[in-house]
Amino acid sequence: MNFTIEPLGDSALLIYLGERVDIELNRRTLALAAVLRAATLPGVRDIAPAYASICLQYDPAAWDHGGSPFERIRASVSAVVAGTANSDAMPLAAGGDTCVEIPVCYEEPYGPDLDHVAAQAGLGRDAVIARHCEAEYRVAMLGFAPGFPYLLGMDPALNTPRRASPRTRVPAGSVAIGGSQTGVYPRELPGGWHIVGRTPLRLFDPGRDPAALLTAGLRVRFRAIDAAQFARLAQ
Amino acid sequence: MSITVVAAGMLTTVQDLGRHGHAGWGIGAAGAMDPVCLRLANLLVGNAQDAAALEIVLRGPRLRFAADCRIALTGAPIDAHCDGTPVPMWSPFYVPRGAQLSLGNTQHGALAYLAVGGGIATEPVLGSRSIDINAGIGGAALASGDVLSVHGHAARPAAVKWSLDPAPWFDPAAPIRLVAGTHFPRLDTESQHRLFATEFRISSDSNRVGFRLQGEPLALREPLELVSAGVVTGTMQLPPAGAPIVLMAEAPTSGGYPRIAHVIAVDLPSLAQRRPGDRVRFTRISLATAQTRYLERERALSALAQSIQQRLQS
């Protein structure tokens, strides 16, 4: 496996597997993050995978035994990554084959940008909904806000460049399209993606265990529901 | 034991050393903006360094104590009175049952920390009591009428004649040292020079998420399209408009802007103590030197912790 390790300031580092948004690269990134978590290196505060890189935060004081802490932890991380590359038994990403179904109401007033996406794609509203629900997605990473999933696997016909000026308030549960990706806003947030529908599910609840409904690596599908079902599920 | 908030101050929050281990779910660490002053305040009341305490921004709260208690104030110098008696900073102070602690304005610097013997005992969320305002985790900033519970703690009145020297731990005007970020070489030559040769100001739309810097804009040699990757507290990002942003305690977990530099961990408190409009100059050091400075600071804090413990016991 090709990788590079670079410092991210004096208390973190980034392990890069590539610079592309790509499902296979992302799968290997998530698997490597799981291996690094299991390696329980000393002084590691956090290990967070993104699309094709992993951010590892550490306490330099735990690597203070002669020589630069960064060089020492880099050597240890390199050994873990290299060991993984030599093994055929790359573990499955978190979640494995679990598929989470997310009910979405695409009706007014929940999908204010559905017409824009449809016009951009040269499709009718129903065709956009059908294509959005037909695809199977992978959670590539969570970020931007707690529990916000970046989903890969959208039908390319639905690609829509982001809004020129972001909304200051996107309602919680909004399902949106930004470029080639789709995602769900866990709470009311500012946002520049096109809103095509809304789910009654809570993607993030700090009082729940686990707090985030989704984890990187999970499979996700959307299922269209009507406004009455939305109201029932939202209770 | 509990504390009643009589008046909340400008922005008073419960903070500890943060919520670690959840960045993979988009959950940032948050925690104290000036973690060193939080640790020192805790040490002065005999708490663990990572206990929860109050972070006070610019104008402090008025608080009523339901039981005898030991407190300590560190960070920005702030007007403080306990039922009319001036409260010294950087020193343990005994508050009798029923007393009201009135905190005024910080005289310079932005952040004061108030630790209470036993530690604030709000309900932890995901392993931390830190209030992450932007992410909406751990509650909201204090409001008048709130009641904060405090872990049990036996305080006895004792006249303390010593205080810490704040000089090594509080300096809201020092130059801020940076290590280069991955995309520093992608700045044009003039911008590489400008980052260290000119002065910036903390913009008024700065907050616990990030400090925006006003100055002569910086520019890349050519536009850079990046795939989102991890960022941390201290990361200096450069959005297209050219005004850098330093991510602070409530840093997001990932970002797609070029990472031109990082504030070294040792200098984050000094940056955090600046107010909107304050000036900041940056100097550049190597990663190896930054980590050496960090190890030195941690050794100094360990030695100080031991000496405080001995003085509290005598």
Note down, in words, how this protein is organized.
Chain A is α+β, with helices and mostly antiparallel strands and 235 residues long. In chain A, 26% of the residues lie in helices and 28% in strands. Chain A is built from five helices and 13 strands. Chain A has helices spanning 23-39, 69-85, 114-121, 125-134, 227-234; strands at residues 4-7, 12-16, 44-49, 53-58, 99-105, 137-142, 149-152, 167-170, 174-178, 181-184, 189-191, 194-198, 219-225. In chain A, the strands form three sheets. Chain A has a seven-stranded mixed sheet with strand order 5-13-6-7-10-9-12. In chain A, helix 1 (23-39) crosses helix 2 (69-85). The radius of gyration of chain A is 20 Å and the shape is elongated. The mean pLDDT of chain A is 92. Chain B is α+β, with helices and mostly antiparallel strands. In chain B, a hairpin with a 2-residue loop joins strand 6 (78-82) and strand 7. The chains are: A alpha+beta (235), B alpha+beta (314). Chains A and B meet through strand 2, strand 3 and strand 4 of A and strand 15, strand 19 and helix 4 of B.
